[in-house]
Design goal:
Structural class: mainly alpha
Number of strands: 2
Radius of gyration: 15 Å
Strand order of the largest sheet: 1-2
Strand content: under 5%
Helix content: 40-55%
Largest sheet: 2 strands, antiparallel
Order of helices and strands: HHEHHHEH
Shape: globular
Bound molecules: iron/sulfur cluster
Number of domains: 1
């Protein structure tokens, strides 16, 4: 008989509080939704997710009717829709809320959100995570829960 996994502690209120705080302290940026930052192969950068972010993102993926990831043909984020828009915008991870391309005004300075990163790390420990992981792997694990 397979051992049952322990239930995942409730992560949603803290994640939503962190994301609400990022929105509250938004810096002037001019994002034109070009989604250049979603094209990981081109930028050479992939968002890193803590476990709480990954579990919250998985909720968004399921809400969009998906249960698994399919690689994007251009090497972009697997959550970038064929219409060029994020398919899980309301559930996008912290990095997608604080990273802006140079044309839009650049990434938020770390000191502006350091306390929120610390809260994400604290939640990660509480959820039995092992630190930040690249989006695809973190999300694939979260989708199995
Ligand atoms: S989650 Fe959405 S906003 Fe973030 S990289 Fe993927 S498609 Fe872009």
């Amino acid at each position: 008989m397979r051992a049952r996994r322990p239930p995942v502690p409730d992560f949603q209120p803290e994640i939503e509080a962190i994301y609400a705080e990022v929105a509250r302290r938004a810096l002037p940026r001019d994002c034109q939704l070009r989604t250049g930052c979603c094209h990981f192969r081109q930028t050479g950068r992939t968002p890193l997710l803590t476990r709480g972010e990954a579990l919250y993102l998985a909720k968004g993926v399921r809400a969009a009717g998906r249960t698994q990831l399919r690689p994007h043909p251009d090497g972009a984020c697997p959550l970038l829709g064929r219409d060029g828009r994020c398919t899980v915008y309301a559930h996008r991870p912290f990095g997608c809320r604080t990273h802006f391309c140079d044309a839009a005004g650049g990434m938020y300075p770390r000191k502006h959100v350091a306390d929120l990163i610390h809260r994400l790390e604290t939640l990660d420990e509480k959820l039995g995570g092992d630190g930040s992981r690249p989006l695809e792997g973190a999300l694939a694990s979260a989708l199995k829960d």
